[in-house]
Structure formats: C-alpha cells, structure tokens
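Example 9 (inverse folding). The structure is encoded as follows.
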C-alpha cells in the first residue's frame, strides 16, 4: 500500500500556520498562554475549550519546531490518505480530535490537581506519525540523523514512553504521546480495516516489500 504525498498538504500547512501564529505570541504573552494551556481547575469551571487550545501553544521554540517539523513530514504523507475517506475537513477534525483524545487519560488522572498543566501538539502529532508507521512500517525515519526503520522506532518510542511515564520526572506528558499514537492507529484502521493485514504482511517481509 503506497504512502506518499500526491497533492499539496494544504490542511497540514494550515495547521502548522495556525499553531505557529498562536504559539509564538504566547511565548511572551503569559496571559494568552495561561488562557489556552490545559489546567484542570479551569476545566472544572467549564473552560472546555482548553481540551483543544492546549494543542496550539508550546513551551518554547524548540518544542514548537520539533512538533511542526514532524507534523509537516508525516502530514504530507497522511493527509492524502485520510482525505480519500473523509475529505480535507475530516482530516482536520481527525487532528483536532487527537488533541482531545490524547489528553483524556491525563484529565481523568489529574482532574483534582491544581498543579498540573500540559500544552503542545505532541498528542496529535503522534497520531499522525503512528498512522504513518501503520502504513509504512519499514520506511526509514531519521531520529537525530540516525536512520531507523519506522517499526523499530515505534517499539523504542513506546517502550521509552511507558518507562518515562511511570518515572514522571521529566515534566513531559508521555501519556498523551502514547494515547495519541494509539488513536492514530485506530482511526486509520477504522478508515481502512485492510491496513491490519497490510501491516502484518509488511513486517513479516525482511525487505519490507
């Protein structure tokens, strides 16, 4: 099942543009940042928009750059795949829904914790990335310039995220990464159930053919 950009990834580019347009001012505007990040007490007061808006603000430039570069490269491949089934608006809705779904376990765990905060598009970006890995598990990903097969990266990433989430010492919401990735895989399978067989056949081939 081929994967690759067959058209301009307009929705992906729009998502990147909106995220940058919001995140960059929020670096220096603490009120804007505070009004948009995920904060359980505010959710408890009915500010449900934070389930979405936290995905459009970032901690710093490096955080924003990493997420947007990842979204661009994998969104280029996945946007055409999803738009075949649900159109461009559906792909945008998939991305936004991934922001929400990735945060739900954290909300359930920290609903009464006034010290908990979270922000960033990592959950949605993980959904796009892991949907791509489902389609092309033997494609090469360059992780800090080191080439790794996508399926190997996925295994290492999941293992590390589970470990780091249990440690809870680095201030990163690894739970959102895992849930976002899982959501991306499930969403892609709902769109095309035959991907399960394609994935299994592909990883069974030593050449990834």
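The amino acid assigned to each position is listed next.
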């Amino acid at each position: 099942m081929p994967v690759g950009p067959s058209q301009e990834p307009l929705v992906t580019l729009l998502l990147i543009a909106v995220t940058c347009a919001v995140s960059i001012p929020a670096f220096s505007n603490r009120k804007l940042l505070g009004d948009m990040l995920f904060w359980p007490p505010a959710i408890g007061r009915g500010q449900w928009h934070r389930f979405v808006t936290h995905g459009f603000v970032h901690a710093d430039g490096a955080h924003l750059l990493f997420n947007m570069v990842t979204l661009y490269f994998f969104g280029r491949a996945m946007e055409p795949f999803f738009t075949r089934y649900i159109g461009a608006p559906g792909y945008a809705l998939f991305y936004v829904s991934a922001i929400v779904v990735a945060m739900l376990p954290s909300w359930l765990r920290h609903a009464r914790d006034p010290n908990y905060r979270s922000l960033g598009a990592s959950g949605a970006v993980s959904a796009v990335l892991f949907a791509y890995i489902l389609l092309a598990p033997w494609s090469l990903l360059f992780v800090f310039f080191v080439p790794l097969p996508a399926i190997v990266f996925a295994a290492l990433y999941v293992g590390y995220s589970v470990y780091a989430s249990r440690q809870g010492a680095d201030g990163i919401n690894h739970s959102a990464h895992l849930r976002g990735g899982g959501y991306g895989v499930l969403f892609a399978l709902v769109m095309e159930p035959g991907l399960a067989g394609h994935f299994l056949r592909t990883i069974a081939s030593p050449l990834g053919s």
